[in-house]
């Protein structure tokens, strides 16, 4: 398995992540940025309320940020993270292709998940069988059948985790869009793969009992995990013990230096809460990048 080491790893290629990478790299530490800019919520949008810039497309804005970060010395890896592990002197990150990456400082800037299925029963059974976090809730489904919905790394890696808990795991997806290693793992497992299918309804009485697919078929399950993108900040944060807001359990709490409750982990951008503005994301990214670089230098 390939292993690499960096002083700072930035998760996310949106405005917060790119600004963090620029400032960390200019602080003369090694920086790796992970993610895909096309998955940023800004990529297909336009920007017209950012100080000193005329109206530009989100794609143009992000590509310029990538060039600036690269020129400053940051490296880019266009892969999703499937697992993060805290250690005494840093963190280990595992990617979808099987790479292992070590870092002293970790910056979470992946934004927040806005992906919902929008099907009947999804809202009604939230917390009663519907979950958006395998790492958070897998333990509640020991010995019962579950479904997981999505075709990217979060769903596939989540399904591979659920086989250790659930009696039966159904992966409901379109075309799989993951690294070959992950695809091979899921096809070689006991996971029941429903390709080119979509969930049309989640139903039950007091809790989830089944899902109905677009071909009319019914699958009896006690839980439905909705993981429609890359593994998000909440899932990775939960695995590392990062403190989230107590009301909605969806935002990472930070101090004035964008430091979380875990030494060496920083957060910036939408994942720290509203307002959902590029100006806020860039400002927090700047602070997080400088603070993360300072933390990493302690180990030199």
Describe this entry's structure for a reader.
Residues 6-285 form the FAD/NAD(P)-binding domain. It comes from Desulfococcus multivorans DSM 2059. Keywords: Flavoprotein, Oxidoreductase. This is Pyridine nucleotide-disulfide oxidoreductase, FAD/NAD(P)-binding domain containing protein. It holds the Pfam family Pyr_redox_2. It is a single chain. This protein has 300 residues and is of the alpha/beta class. It has two domains: 3-113 and 232-297, FAD/NAD(P)-binding domain (3-Layer(bba) Sandwich), CATH 3.50.50; 130-226, 3-Layer(bba) Sandwich (FAD/NAD(P)-binding domain), CATH 3.50.50.60. Helix content is 26%, strand content 26%. The protein is built from seven helices and 17 strands. The chain has helices at residues 15-26, 58-72, 134-137, 153-162, 180-188, 233-240, 278-297; strands at residues 3-11, 31-34, 46-47, 56-57, 75-77, 81-87, 90-95, 100-108, 130-131, 145-149, 168-172, 192-194, 199-204, 208-213, 218-220, 223-226, 265-267. Strands 1, 2, 5, 6, 7, 8 and 17 form a seven-stranded mixed beta sheet that branches. It has a five-stranded parallel beta sheet with strand order 9-16-10-11-12, covered by helices on one side. The protein has a three-stranded antiparallel beta sheet with strand order 13-14-15, with no helix packed on it. Strand 13 (199-204) and strand 14 (208-213) form a beta hairpin. Helix 1 packs parallel to helix 2 (58-72), helix 1 (15-26) packs parallel to helix 7 (278-297) and helix 4 packs parallel to helix 5. The longest helix has 20 residues, at 278-297. The protein starts with a strand and ends with a helix. The model has no long low-confidence stretch (mean pLDDT 91).
